[in-house]
Amino acid sequence: MIGSKWKCTWKAWLGMALGVAFVAAAGSPVLAQRTTRVGPEVKQEGLTVAELAAQRRGLNLRISTLIPAGIANERLNVGITQQDRELLDAPYVNDGTAPMRIGVVKPVEGIVGKLYQGDFTRGVIETRPDGSFVWAMEVSSPQAQAIRVHLTGFNLPENTEMYLLGPDGQADGPYTLKGRHGDGDFWTRSITSDTGQLVLRYSGTTPAVDRPQVSFFISDVGHIHGRPPKVDEQSHDSWPCSDNAPCVVDAQCVNVAAVVDAKDAIAKLEWIQGAFINTCTGGLLADTDTASQIPYLLTANHCFTSSRSNLETFFNYTTTSCNGSCPDSLVTGGTPPSASTVGITVVATGNSGDFTLGILDDAPPAGSVFLGWNNAPIAFTNGADLHRISNANFGPQVYSRHDVDTGSPTCTGIPRGGWIYSKDASGATMGGSSGSPVVNAAGEVVGQLTGCCGFACGDVCDSQSNWTIDGALASYYSAVEQFLDPPTGGGCTGNPECDDGLFCTGTETCVSGSCQSSGNPCASGTVCNEGTNSCDAPVCGGNKAPCSANSDCCSNNCRRGACKGN
Question: Which CATH superfamily is domain 53-225 in?
Answer without folding.
Answer: Spermadhesin, CUB domain (2.60.120.290)
